[in-house]
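Encode chain A's predicted structure.
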Amino acid sequence: MLTRRDVLTSSTAFGFSAALPAFGDPASDLARKATELGSFVTSQMTQLSRDKLTAASEELLSEYPDDATFLGLDTGTRTALRSRLPDRSMEADATRAASCAKRLGDLKSINPAQLTGIDQVNLEVVTYAHALADEGYRRFHYGDNAVLNVWQAESNTPYAVSQASGFFATVPDFLNSQHPIQGKADADAYLARVDVFAGGLDAENARLTRDAALGSIAPDFLLDLTLKQMTDFQARSIADWGLVTSLATRANAKGIAGDWEGQAKYVCEKKVAPALARQIAILKDLRAKAKPDAGVWKLPDGEAYYDWLLKVGTTTPMSPDEVHKLGLEQVQSISAQMDVLLQKQGLTNGTVGQRMDALSKDPRYLFPNTDAGRADLIAYLNANVAKMRERLPKAFATMQKADLFIKRVPPEIEAGAPDGYEQDGTIDGSRPASYYINLRDTGNWPKFSLPTLTFHEGIPGHVWQGSFVHALPTIRSQLMFNAYVEGWALYSEQLGDELEIYADDPVGKLGYLQSIQFRACRLAVDTGLHAKRWTRDRAIQWMVEQNGNPVDSARGEIDRYCAWPGQACGYQIGHLHIDALRTKAKAALGARFDLRTFNDALLTSGSLPLTVLDGVIERFIKEV
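Encoded structure for chain A:
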């Protein structure tokens, strides 16, 4: 495991290399080795370990049937999973905890020294994930432990329901964007899931009541936001609910006979609407008891809980104090680089944050906050994807198709949704990946901020990285490690700069630096909220002052960190770790270092804890 000192002394410690490493000859032995990677792809797994990992995979799909749909695995003998959603009851959560502990024992019975290459990596990864989840189950008995649910793996939270967590925040969009409608059986399965959705809301109500008794109630401002989302949804005609229109529109488009609108409307009227009303009533009762305290320090064993959440988010043992200090150092260093570019643009008065704020309000860089403006913005994102694809052979030896669609975050959840996020496609490629952008206000997206976001969420970020994971054994696609996945996406933003996307666009380069600094700000803000007792207002103000974010955007981000503690720290921690590993490989290999084969080595072993990634790169260096 690289130390914090290793990260800070890396020549790319702040995410910016002076120049792109020289590219080798595409016909060289080294380039050919990138597609082979020796022991990385040679299967030598013993039958015992194969059986245990396969059994773990099937158990996880049964526990999280949404993952089966998300990955395109709810077919054949698993078709029944398409009618199910995860059980949200307390009893089911206890069963999942017991199953996790048993699987962990089975995994630990395998001697990793008997395995080599990717086999050893697979065991290390799956064991690490189960140990992390098991620790959370054993020590903390409120909120959601989502470590083993790839569809929701980033949303480990002390609050079973919030603007960003729980069935209301996730299931309607899941049914619309992930549940396929190809025939009558799919439409029937959709209706079954709407029925389960209603029951899940009631199961969450019981958890909310239990958690409140334990001392876990969401902050008042999160409950206000959650209630607004729900009551706005509740006030609409049920015939206009996405739960109804999504099924009816898609079934009719496929020519599937049946009154799908009527059936969906009936289930929503008889089951979903009453269950939603009951959840709103519970949340209103909790709102009367809620306080404005933003951090998890207020919760039972809150300091230890945040330590665990940081471990989940970063896959490192870093303490809140270490993360906070690193964030402050990063912000200062990146601000100095931004200052130089701002001065060259004639922007000399005020702090870096104030000048970036002024730049973000310049009409030259804004899309109209209209439907036409939103369409133009998405077209601009697609153009940036095309521009990046032309440059990919300079950074990777292994090319992937990696299709993606760019979409607007559904308006009914955009108030509480992240500013941008990606959803992987299915393993078989039948559903491409999607990159969602939150367009509640196009003023949150000055034009110079968009290329780097697109490289992060799309190509060569999440979508590109996800295509490599799907080539591994199924269970590897069922596990996601936040620091690696988000660290890779930030590293992809860096590649955009190194591939000279901003050679003739200094304002775009400022957008890139602002994006990296934004993730550095997260280190300070997340730990500030949850370990140093910052208020929500202080965190918002600090983010705006340091990074120049629009206030609305900063508020949405801070609210997200309050709902998902620790997750936001994984981005910059993972990015710095990858940069430090690259510096280490360059020093060890000298003239034999090739950026393309290094990047392939980062990707071909899939999503990993950073501790496991260290060993992967050590083996890569030895291979070369």
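The longest strand covers residues 404-408.
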